[in-house]
Amino acid sequence: KYFFMGGEPVPEHVVKSLQSKWPHMTVTAGFGTTETSLCLTLPHEHTVTKAGSAGRPLFFSDIRIVDKSNNDVKPGEQGELLIGGPTVFSGYWKNQKATREAIDNRGYFHTGDIVRRDAEGFVFVVEREKEVVISGGENIYPAEVDGVISRHPCVAEVAVIGIPDAKWGERPIAVIVPKDGKVVTTDEIRQFCTGKLAKYKIPDRVELTDSLPHTGPGKIARWQLKAKYGGGIAK
């Protein structure tokens, strides 16, 4: 039996918990987009040692990780993931403008995903570029904060979003679905995060909800949460 993970970054403790609970199940991960198909996979033998990674490029995928100037970054540094190769789509139907914005003149598709690659070539997805919270000039990656808060024993599901702030530009808040019969407070979550996250990454407040909105593939629809809690515009 196989357990395949994808869609969003999976916290390291969740990966290790799955492998521990079902030691005879093959747990793997991967990464792909509608525009490129699957392009990264994590071999089963590295599920625990590289927990949290989306894997290495498949043989037909050519990837680059670049900075804002489209220069390749060094191993360990963060940048946008670009994908090249025969599986990259030819373009968006009747939308040349979107196609030109997505595919550069070398044929690489710009995913909009912030990633890093370690010295052994394993790629770790950090966050969607448009989901990054910029607070006082510092980048806060919701997936990182989600991963910490999800370890709280009373939290069933969590999504961190950025909301406008007059002083800092944006500040993070955590929208939480508590486990049945449990209640969590802002002070409790902030205290839980202390020592696990830099102070500026700790959410300013907690909003409780019965459920989080999801897209068809199961990703959290954070833009809907921004519209509800932060005055953002829903897609």
Written account of the structure:
The protein is an alpha+beta fold. It folds into two domains: 2-129, Luciferase, Domain 3 (Luciferase, domain 3); 132-229, 2-Layer Sandwich (GMP Synthetase, Chain A, domain 3), CATH 3.30.300. The chain is built from five helices and 13 strands. The chain has helices at residues 12-21, 96-102, 142-149, 186-193, 222-229, and strands at residues 2-5, 26-33, 37-42, 56-57, 62-66, 78-84, 109-117, 123-128, 133-135, 138-140, 155-165, 169-178, 206-208. The chain has a four-stranded mixed β-sheet with strand order 1-2-3-4, covered by helices on one side. Strands 5-6-7-8 form a four-stranded antiparallel β-sheet. Strands 11-12-13 form a three-stranded mixed β-sheet. Strand 11 (155-165) and strand 12 (169-178) form a beta hairpin. The longest helix has 10 residues, at 12-21. The chain starts with a strand and ends in a 6-residue tail after the last helix. The mean pLDDT is 91.
